[in-house]
Automatic annotation (TrEMBL):
Organism taxonomic ancestry: Bacteria, Pseudomonadati, Pseudomonadota, Betaproteobacteria, Burkholderiales
InterPro entries recorded: ATP-grasp, ATP_grasp_subdomain_1, D-Ala_lig_Van_CS, D_ala_D_ala, Dala_Dala_lig_C, Dala_Dala_lig_N, PreATP-grasp_dom_sf
Cofactor dependence: Mn(2+); Mg(2+)
Similarity section: Belongs to the D-alanine--D-alanine ligase family.
The protein's name: D-alanine--D-alanine ligase
Protein function: Cell wall formation.
Active site: E25, S153, S289
GO cellular component terms, A-Z: cytosol
Length: 320
């Protein structure tokens, strides 16, 4: 593992690790942020945890952080709202900027932009309270996926296999979001591709395959059990892996992502065609998380990954 010099440590200054927050993913964010905080401190960096769910923006400004590592997931941390506050406060931060964070958090807008660029993503419909669910099911086919478009970590997610269950799946999501996303079900294998860098320098890390029990990669199996299996590299031909990496970088660049992110991909069983689901602009950094796993595959330790991401912190709207 590379050791930072004292000059490098001083150049990073006083660092805030923003964690916790107020979203449905608060518990996961605390795990991510604690891991990042310990990793940075182990490298001699003057890093401090800051819970945006219990402390105010005034307190954040008073800390006089030279830069912050955003380890928040979901609303008020990954959706552009915090990024806007940091721009106003003049505090450089990791990850994508205001607009990109907001777009990537919205799975519907993400799909619209990807489809314009020819990036494959499952067919979808936007549901409201008065939507004709019978017509949607006829259009998308069964089974189909129902989820809130502004949540992560599979919160509110349902797989509908019978028309009689469609309304209950909608009702499960409706309290979480103004609209609900219905999506064609893609039968196949599940993968994720981490991307580091910005613009022309963005590069994909090795592909990770996710094999969850009965294909159910839900909140519990993502973070709190050890029954989900991960394979990096996966048992998959190099050409298909390279195509998933190419699409992931294209999708990342299309949304204007910066610093780091993770693109979730389904590989359709019938023809090995990849379909992209979403980009996470502030991915998990827990013991079960996938970006650190992909980084390890290219010889980058968790600590080195955290430092590399931290070094990319910047203000996106600054002109100088």
């Amino acid at each position: 593992m590379t050791t930072l010099t004292q000059d490098e440590i001083r150049a990073l200054g006083k660092v805030g690790v923003l964690l916790g927050g107020r979203s449905a993913e608060r518990d996961v964010s605390i795990m991510s942020g604690t891991g990042v905080l310990q990793a940075l401190q182990s490298q001699g960096i003057d890093a401090h945890g800051f819970d945006t769910g219990t402390r105010s923006l005034a307190e954040l400004a008073a800390e006089k952080f030279d830069r912050v590592f955003i380890a928040l997931h979901g609303r008020y941390g990954e959706d552009g709202t915090l990024q806007g506050a940091l721009e106003l406060l003049g505090i450089p931060y990791t990850g994508s900027g205001v607009m990109t964070s907001a777009i990537a958090m919205d799975k519907i807008t993400t799909k619209i932009l990807w489809l314009k660029e020819g990036i494959p993503t499952p067919a979808y419909a936007v549901l409201q309270a008065d939507s004709d669910l019978n017509a949607v099911a006829a259009h998308l086919g069964l089974p189909l996926i129902v989820k809130p478009p502004h949540e992560g970590s599979s919160i509110g997610f349902s797989k509908v296999t019978a028309l009689a269950d469609f309304q209950a799946a909608y009702d499960k999501c409706a309290p979480l979001d103004d609209s609900v996303l219905a999506e064609s079900f893609v039968q196949g294998r599940e993968f994720t591709v981490a991307v580091l860098g910005t613009g022309a320098d963005a590069r994909a890390l090795p592909v990770v395959e996710i094999v969850a029990p009965e294909g159910d990669y839900d909140y519990q199996n993502k973070y709190f059990t050890d029954v989900t299996q991960y394979f990096c590299p996966p048992q998959l031909d190099q050409a298909t892996q390279a195509e998933m990496q190419r699409l992931a970088v294209q999708a990342y660049r299309t949304l204007g992502c910066e610093g780091w992110g993770r693109v979730d991909v389904l590989l359709r069983a019938e023809d090995n065609r990849p379909f992209l689901l979403e980009v996470n602009t502030s991915p998990g950094m827990t013991s079960h998380s996938l970006v650190p796993m992909a980084a390890r595959a290219v010889g980058m330790s968790y600590e080195e990954l955290c430092v590399a991401i931290l070094r990319t912190a910047r203000l996106k709207n600054a002109r100088n």
